[in-house]
Amino acid sequence: MPVAVYVLGLSVFALGTSEFMLSGLLPPIAEDMDVTIPQAGLLISAFAIGMVVGAPLLAVATLRLPRRTTLIALISLFGLGQIAGALAPSYELLFASRIVSALACAGFWAVGAAVAIAMVDKDQRARAMAVMIGGLSIANVLGVPAGAFLGEHLGWRSAFWSVGAASAVALVGILALIPEIPRPAVRPTLARELHIYRDRQVWLSIGVTALAAGGVFCAFSYLSPLLTEVAGLDAGWVPWILALFGVGALVGTTVGGRIADAHLFGVMLWGITASTVFLVALALFASSAVAAVGLSFLMGVSAFFTAPALNARMFNVAGAAPTLAGATTTAAFNLGNTGGPWLGGTVIDAGRGFAATAWAGAAMTVTAIALGAIALRLHTRTPQPPTRVIASSTPEASAPEASAAATAQPATC
Fold this sequence. Notes:
78% of the residues lie in helices and 0% in strands. The chain has helices at 3-20, 26-33, 37-61, 67-87, 91-118, 125-154, 156-177, 190-194, 200-220, 223-230, 238-259, 264-285, 289-305, 307-318, 322-349, 356-381, 399-406. Helix 6 packs antiparallel against helix 7 (156-177), helix 6 (125-154) packs parallel to helix 17 and helix 14 (307-318) runs antiparallel to helix 17 (399-406).
């Protein structure tokens, strides 16, 4: 495995930490910027909106650009976005910096995956993707709680400076170790790629993915104030509990990835059902510190247990357009990351309290289960071909790449 692939994994670690670390920084940001916690929660939605818009657009727009140069430009822009956030004197400028960082993040994912695939042999593509996705998993386990720890002891701006420093290290690695990658010989036809959106199964897959992710992040985005103000835990516990969620996410991704190919709908539906049960339990027992801590771990397991199946489902129904299939999955997850925190903030503003975000999240996951059941019924009523072939629009977007992406944790950042 080329060292350059691990450099991409380090880059993804910085990207993922930036996206998710705000879950542990909302109270100090809200106090410093003189806004409410729900308003601070919209910063999470701002990043997700940038990913929703940027993923499909940049996936297509950068296809004929030099890969190495594009990576350098995007990681540099991302790092500058972190510095702008650390220096932001107002909420509005911090909000704008999150959108810029998200656009750079979306583009880096689109190009970085193609570069990782291009640098290895065909029989190492899945491993290369696993290294990249591993950076995101480690961000959940280490980066996010580290950000919360820094925010608690050195101020929330120190977390942004730290991610900016990680981005600088990644930039040096890209400059030194990423080789020049040949441009794709044939540019995909946008009209052919967009044809996938005529399939109702694609839209069902988008809906299930967005609602499943949004339901969990509706509660997770406000987990820090829930733990301190409802469960009664000291703020010093928050980084460790966020790390526990990350460990659960790593466990869920590993287990779900092993069985999703053989039991795709089972993993998808049972995983979302488990998330629903855990969210309801959190709403009922949020005042219990033991229950809140345990359920934080279990929500990480169930949410990421479904991720491989949700990815695989999109490639199954949109495999004829692999360029947009992966980008559409990324956008769908970030639709959930946008809508979940917004709905949670709305519930809090209505005076329902932080525990009510779990009820709102459960409503989203129940809807996801209903859409998943509809997709399953349509799937069983449609004759299936004996084998599935994913068409390749470019030499860098072949079936092994799709398979690797399908079994990996989604690129939410």
